[in-house]
Amino acid sequence: MTTDVHAPPAALDEVPAGGAGPRRRPRAKTGLRLGGASGTTLGVVVLWMSLLVLIPLAAVLGKAFDGGWSAFADAITQPATAAALRLTITLSVAVAVINAVMGTIVAWVLVRGRFPGAGIFEMVIDIPFALPTIVAGLVMLALYGGDSPIGVSLVGTRTGLLVTLLFVTLPFTVRTVQPVLLNLDREAEEAAASLGASAPVIFRRIALPQLMPAIISGAVLSFARAIGEYGSVVLISSNLPFKTEIASSVIYGKLQDADNAAVSTQQAAAIATVLLAASAVVLVLIDVLQRRVARRG
Amino acid sequence: MGIQVHGIGKRFGDFVALENIDLSMRTGALTALLGPSGGGKSTLLRIIAGLEKPDTGTVEIDGADATRLAPRHRNVGFVFQHYAAFTHLSVYRNVAFGLEIRKRPRAEIRKRVNELLELVHLEQFADRLPAQLSGGQRQRMALARALAVEPKVLLLDEPFGALDAKVRKELRDWLRRLHDEVHVTTVFVTHDQEEALEVSDEIVVINDGRVEQVGKPDELYDRPANPFVMSFLGPVTTLDGQLVRPHDIEVFTDPVGDAVPAKVTRLQRIGFEVRAELGDTGGWAQLTRGQSEALNLAEGANVWVRPAPGTTRIPAPRQPT
């Protein structure tokens, strides 16, 4: 094959975005503009965020370090507390990872599969999301409780916790991945197939990179929900220290302790701070990861 | 050799997309599948690529039965109307895709991709993402990507359909020149008869799931098999119960031999061309501006018209097309 195809016609060097590209349409400079944020709106946002998020968070942090660094360290290194924190974070990571895989598969089947009852399936996905958490806990208890109709009791087990957390976080990855999956270019997959790619290669090299940001944000949402979940797990966990007691229930327990309220509240705040830090670390990690994925393409 | 299809049939529910298609496309030729939208030409192309399964019939590529082969084993290059770019990969990686999954050595990939990018004049855009290219550039990238794996056949589905008229025309000339250099057996789908007449070595006219006619562009234009082919390939009008091309109608100001009388009811000038509507015959004649001036044509003039001797004409169907 030679590489000289005579003089290129003018169109071959036309400027990008010259009419043909649907993606890059120059934004209109005139007309209704909702782009800029005025000083007033910015002020409102700052005030709103402060009242709702920043000040309460700062208050918790302040409370956690009430008795200085040593009190904080003491609070979170109490054996039962440390075990609960470890369990909570491990469970949350497991939930995030499992959801990343299973949620993607569920979304894939919902979008690509054609089967009777797809509409019902579609609605069922959101049920865990719509249920009050304590009701979700009851639902779990009804199936996996002591008098389980299927003979599987998960009360007081870590498996029970995991299953319950997976139940309440089911919609997250499904709902973040689904719209992206719907918009994937099927022809790009066909192009890859005609270029010699097998189905797994097409999934890994064409579909997955485009789904990754959605999968990651779904997983992060699952993690965040799992780390703070209380109502749905409290029934099935039985709160066995060193076994099934999770951080949020330790916090609740501390706050119930009226005998030495000051110390207990400080300890509860310290545990909350660890959970907060875990969430923050995950968010930052994910952000870095996502930027890297976006850059590498 | 080339591509042979035998007895291909395909239905989508009740809709018959293709019915018993037999075709043979020559090795190294540029064949156009021409026809109106919904006529089945894209379905046929997709069946050749393996992207669609035929209900009946067989597909042979280069003498080997490919009917049951998965697309990835057919060694065909496919170019889509809407580019089907891998949006998350750079232009370079798009073109390299087929070679990368074949695990070719990196140096060989680089050499080949750079060669192809030069061929399609995108060498300076190697690091861009497809979204940063114009439509014409994206389609050239898609073409380079398809050619990278050295396919036995290159299939293009309305490749210029999404581009504006000017880019379309330039790209079509360029495709013809590219084909003259690369010589890969190429089949492209189009609904634009001008595109088919201009670019291809052979045209297959497909309508309603059937092949209407196969032939070289001139053969089809000059000797259409039926009214459909005649009217699809160019302008037609009726004169004296026959389908004729309006540019084949002779106009006289005095009675001549077998010419029939007519009245010019409307005279319309479009650039160099003059269209004379011949009210009572229901037809129209296409003249050059010079001819029209020489005849001193004006609206309301009485003229005599006949098809020029030796030109294409076929009996008009009862329902004029």
TrEMBL record, chain A:
Parts of the chain that traverse the membrane: 34-59, 89-111, 123-144, 150-174, 211-228, 268-289
GO CC terms, sorted: plasma membrane
SUPFAM superfamilies associated with the record: MetI-like
Chain positions covered by the region annotation Disordered: 1-31
Assigned keywords, A-Z: Membrane, Sulfate transport, Transmembrane, Transmembrane helix, Transport
Domain ABC transmembrane type-1: 85-286
KW tRNA processing (keyword) present: no
GO molecular function, one term: ABC-type sulfate transporter activity
Family annotation (InterPro entries): CysT_permease, MetI-like, MetI-like_sf, Sulph_transpt2
Membrane topology qualifier: Multi-pass membrane protein
Main location: membrane
Subcellular compartments: Membrane
Assembly notes: The complex is composed of two ATP-binding proteins (CysA), two transmembrane proteins (CysT and CysW) and a solute-binding protein (CysP).
Function: Part of the ABC transporter complex CysAWTP (TC 3.A.1.6.1) involved in sulfate/thiosulfate import. Probably responsible for the translocation of the substrate across the membrane. Part of the ABC transporter complex (TC 3.A.1.6.1) involved in sulfate/thiosulfate import.
Similarity comment: Belongs to the binding-protein-dependent transport system permease family. CysTW subfamily.
Name this protein carries in UniProt: Sulfate transport system permease protein CysT
Originating species: Rugosimonospora africana
Gene that this sequence comes from: cysT
TrEMBL record, chain B:
Organism: Rugosimonospora africana
Phylogenetic placement of the source organism: Bacteria, Bacillati, Actinomycetota, Actinomycetes, Micromonosporales
Top-level taxon: Bacteria
Pfam families in alphabetical order: ABC_tran (PF00005), TOBE_3 (PF12857)
Name used for this protein in its record: ABC-type quaternary amine transporter
Keyword Translocase among record annotations: yes
CDD domains: ABC_CysA_sulfate_importer
Keywords assigned by UniProt, alphabetized: ATP-binding, Cell membrane, Membrane, Nucleotide-binding, Sulfate transport, Translocase, Transport
Ranges that cross the membrane: none
